[in-house]
Amino acid sequence: MPALTTVYPVCTSLLPLSLGGMNPQHLPEYLEQHPDTCRRHPFLPDLARIERLCYLFKTDPPPMPDKIEQRMINPALELLSVQWSGLSERLTNPQHELVEKEGHILVYRKPGTEEVHVIEPSGHDLLALKLISDGIDSKQAAKEGGVPVGTIDDILYVAAHRGLLLAPKSLLVRGEDFPRGVLTDPDRFSAPTFTLQWHITQVCDLHCRHCYDRSDRKTLDLKQAIRVLDDLYSFCQQMHVFTQVTFTGGNPLLYPHFNALYKEAADRGFMTAVLGNPMPKHRIEEMLAIQKPEFYQVSLEGLREHNDYIRGQGHFDRVFDFLDLLKELKIYSMVMLTLTRANMDQVLELAELLRDRVDLFTFNRLAMVGEGADLASAPPEDFPAFLESYMEAAQDNPCMSLKDNFFNLIRHKKALPYVGGCAGYGCGAGFNFVSLLPDGEVHACRKLPSPIGNIEQQNFMEIYRGTDAKRYRAGSSACNTCEIRPVCGGCLAVSYGFGKDIFNELDPYCFR
Fold first, then answer.
1. Could you count the other beta carbons within 10 Å of the beta carbon of residue 291?
2. Which of 11, 57, 293, 368 is deepest in the core (most CB within 10 A)?
């Protein structure tokens, strides 16, 4: 049996007498029954109950469940009613002044660690515990509280992140047929976030020479679009993942109901982002008033002359001015380049120009699809050396990001840590990422024809579990024996542009 001083180090330092013969388990009750013992420190009964729980959770915590099907309260958590405020601080600071005031204290052991925390819970903490204890779902709580459902989900997320709640793991998990090889980290096989890249309109103020789709597609009206968000919310709740909606087009801000749709996404607690073109300051401020985007991405295709040849006269300077605006508004900025034979030797110089102008710069290899079929791809035989030079430059340029999956092939050979790809580790097509076109068609990836369903005829769960989506998730069978398959898989769109059988042949740039 442990000594009193082991279980109650703070309390015993304040007691006026020795209680060496007492069972440590009974000290809080003894102090409550003998108030004279606590005349100088009337808060001792509360403090003793806290210290008893701390010792219990450190030495003999309740077992954690092997599998979590839905959010639940941490088994190693107790909510105590107390008569004093400031007890959590008094545990570590003997000079901290206490105030006689009824309240609560939370004592809990953070899952997966040996850390025991003592906190005065916030109103949001107590709300999260009540919702889970009473089995009230987010939509019901939001309706009763008159707040967006995203507000409730955020409260529950914070509670789970802090360890007050246990949450189910993501059900977005790579197939068992993926070779494990040297990749033992389970994070390489699962994704915490599902991204919907939503092309809400085909309307665009540019006509780029590599545009992959200039077709005239009808556009969902606002009511239809809101139904899409509701279905997306249900899908991500069932899959236990966070949601990101990346609005694009065309130029997404030219969609007539953009602000209203953006607000609906924000109200559901979705992370939001934009892939678009430079826009006037007032349009960006309207978006900011609703929710700050995770990022705003624009494109450049090389230095001024080449970029403007691809994207239109004056575009290069407009982008640089717009990047300054994004910095002024404190919006995370990204620049994407489509890598071709013509601009391969301009990438590093462009990256230098962007060094202090943009938060992140990266590239995609050209997919010879649509009007992009008229451009020349970067020579595959030159690609490994290009990646090496890019990686070397990136060591000294913080804006340069390693996005292409084949960076991981080089890093594997050099025993360096792997990096995330297009939408996380490996190819995300049909896995943790899909594209929704203006008319409701859903594709595994927007850069190649990859239809997997139609949101006007099916819901996201039906589409995700469909045969077509599974084929794109599996990728090319030619990658199945590669030990870094989960963090690579090449690019299906690039393979398609080269006329390859994307489900059975290697990406033509693979140098394994």
1. 17
2. 11
